[in-house]
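Notes taken during the Thursday session

The instructor put the following on the board and asked us to keep it in front of us for the whole hour. The protein is DUF881 domain-containing protein. We were told not to look anything up and to reason only from what is written here. First, the residues (278 in total):
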Amino acid sequence: MSNEDEQPENRLRRELPEEVPASASAEAPVAEEAPAPTVTGRQRLVQGLWPPRASRAQLIVAVLLFGLGFGLAVQVASNSNSDSALRGARQEDLVRILDELDDRTQRLEDEKQGLQKQRDELENSSDQAEEARKQTAEKEKQLGILAGTVAAQGPGITMTIDDTKGTVEADMLLDAVQELRAAGAEAIQVNGVRVVAGTYLTDSDKSVSVDGNKINAPYRFKVIGKPQDLEPALNIPGGVVQTLEKEQATVTVGRSSKIVVDALRAAKQPDYARSSSR
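Then, after some discussion, the predicted structure tokens were revealed:
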């Protein structure tokens, strides 16, 4: 062993670990924090809208709005169909329909004035009891005509339906009755059977029954009312006459200054209803 190895400082250096250079630790890489991702305004809007989060109140409002929109669409479609039907009608047909509406309005106005006149007479009459009895008797006659318990006469029309093919059914005659009532008919008789508020028509062995009374073609209507209203109501485009003619039936309508409706109905007493007047 050499003398240099035996020196104390050399022996101490050999026993200590090797020194780490200071530059090595300083140069070690330091992990940098990753920057936070940037969210744009559009991305925040999309995140807020999807997935949708609807409350119960919002769902109810949406259903109501859908129903309202559907109803408006149906109404617009219905009005469009009515407008197209009138748009295709002839000028004289439109004038006739307008005149019929004016006549109905006038009838309602006349009825209103008549009721007002009766009220004024009751209020101003010196003998209100006698006036009331007179009006009651007159009202009884009017109700008797409507109920078919008394005969009636006055201006009106006659309508004859000749059904040689046997194609006319009860619902077609019922449409004629309803159209006449809407035009102001006050008394109607079909082949000797009085038509009243409760009248019903049914098909019966290639013929028609009115309130259980079988009638055969030709069907003859005797109607009391204003002829200027009754006849146009039957001849409107797509009305009673055109419908019957499509079934190969022959329809004849005539006006008359005097129509007699003499078929009567027995007065029926109600089983349960009683007058509430005292």
